[in-house]
Amino acid sequence: MTVRTLISPITPPLKPSDTVEFALGLLNECHVSHLPVVSSERALLGVVSEDQLVDAAHPGVLVSDLIMAEPVKIASNTHVFNATKVLIDHDLSTLPIVSDTGEYLGLVRRHDLFDRFARMLATQESGAIVSLEAKERDLVLSQIIHLIEQNDGRVLSVSTEKRDDSEGTIGVTIKVNLKDGTRIRHLLEHNGYKVESSFGEDEDPEELLDRVQEFLRYLEA
Question: Do residues 202 and 221 lie in contact, with contact meaning Cβ atoms separated by under 8 Å?
C-alpha cells in the first residue's frame, strides 16, 4: 500500500504569493497545521506551519518569506508504514508527495494515514481481540495464526509492538472473526502463550483503536 492512493483531493497547497492571513484561514478550513508551498511550475518550495504563521510580523507577510529549510517530502511509491514514520519523526500533520522529477503531486494527511491503519487492522469488522506477549526470539506469527485457523477461527488482523524492556518482549494483538475471545485465549494459553487480555466484540470496542496508536508510537522508535 503506497501513499499515492491516499493523496488528498480536498487539501490544496499554498502559493508563494499567499499571505499569512490567507494561509491561516486555509489551515483552519482544512483542519491541518502544516501546508506545502508550491510554485506555479508545481515545484515544492517548502512547508509552513501554523506556529510560523502565528509568529509572523503581520498578517500581510508572504508565506514565501517564511520558508527556512529544505522541505520534508516523500515519493509517491513510499509505503504507508514508511510515510507514517517520516510524518511522526518530523511532527507533521501533512506530508508532501513528489514525483521522480520533483514535481509536486499532492499531500497525504495524518488523519488519512491513521484511518488507513485502522482499516488495515480491521477495526471496522466484527470480531474479538486477543493480546499476548512473547520473547522476540520465540515469536513465530505463522504458528499462532495456524493454531487459530486450525481451530475454526479466522485471523482478521495482527499487529506487533516492541515493549520497553530489556528482555526483547513483543506484544501481539490479534483480531479474530469470533464474537467471544475466551476460546481463543484458552487455546493460546494451552499452547504455552502468555495471554494478557481478551475482549469480545461487545466488551471493549476501543481496544484495537488504542493498539493503532501504540503501533504508531512504535514507528517513532
Answer: no
- Domain holding 59: CATH number? 3.10.580.10
CB atoms within 10 A of CB 159: 19
Do 158 and 182 belong to one domain?
A: yes
Measured on CA atoms in the order 85, 89, 92, 96, is the torsion positive or negative? negative
Which pLDDT tens digit goes with each residue over 172-197?
A: 988 898 888 888 888 899 988 899 88
Strand duo 74-75 + 94-98: pairing: parallel
- Does the pTM exceed 0.85? no
Cell 518482549 belongs to: 169
Range of the domain at 182: 121-219
Q: Alpha-carbon distance 160 to 141, whole Å?
A: 10
The average pLDDT across 83-110 equals 94
On whether both 110 and 24 belong to a single domain, the answer is yes
Q: What is the average pLDDT across 104-127? A: 83
- Please give the tally of structural domains in the chain: 2
Amino acid at 153: G
